[in-house]
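help with this:

***
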Amino acid sequence: MNTTVNIKELINGLSKVSRVLNNKTIPILENAYFKFENTEAVNLLTITGTNLEYTIEYVIKLNSEIKENISFLLNPKILLEFIKLLETEELKITFTHENYIIIESGLSSINITIDKEVDVFPKLIEIKENNKLTISNYSEFYNDINIAKDFVSNNEMRPVMNNINIKKLNDNTVDIVATNAYILYKTNVDYISFNSPNIDEIKLNPFFLSLLPKKYDKSITLLFDDKNVIINIENETIIGRLYEGKYPAYETIIPTNYTKELLIESEELHKSINEANLFVDKTSNSLNFNIINTNLLLSSNNDNDKYSKTLILNNKIEEEFSVNLQGKYMTTILSHLHDEIKIVYNNPSNALLISPSINNRELFLIMPLVK
């Protein structure tokens, strides 16, 4: 028996599935699961890959008829590299009674070994609870989570902070939060509907979120329980494991009683901090920000190489203020800001809040360096 497959679709499917095939400790998980089937008069090829933490299932509609259902395991790397070189639109797959398949395109032909012991491949996770996260504006969601990715921790001692937290405030408003304990990003959004009777937050790993498409013009729904999350997007299903620990109470470290604020153009501050970072002490990464009247004096806390620059504020500060901040973290924050920004503060030992001056939806926080 044989069938034909669109090469472009097969490349797309194999490329996506290969992203989760990195479990070197379990050899069977270096393979993808291929299932050719005729279901309700529709001929389908389903390709599945998993590393037990994350799973991708990709479905391709076939133009030729499948007379019998066939399943096998195959390491897709060689197949993917081969079909990327082909110039035809379709390839022919012939199924044999031996442990190999024949793949033909034009004058090219290869035999690829397969494993028919498919029962050893992990079964897909099913979510039975009716918990839903509906995202009505995907482009905004994708933008917000890509900002949040820069603020997650990579500290294995605090694994819960290696995730992006989505916390329900009410049925139609959520916070998207990420922090590494030194800097924090929070945005309050109304394009996510969080429907769950028992769960008020889910923690999504940046790798899982990186599996999502960059562009999508429809709403998407995440189904979840207390352990796993599933997203169906067109012909693709993405499954991930959720971290089960409690996210830090970030609301308690966001001050609400600040009365002092300065206004400054973010691009000029960002450029100046990038310059100053070349001269900081590499251990502390400390920069000093001294504010008085309409000036901000930026200087490197370095006994050897010195850097200083005066920037003009957009407002006047009556009381002098000096604080030490890590330059690399200020660079991270400012890379996501444009035009005029507002920095509110209290004293040199308290966190500083940074946000666009005309939009309070996004909030950035940085902890000072205390001598």
Observations:
- The chain has three domains: 2-120, 131-251, 255-366.
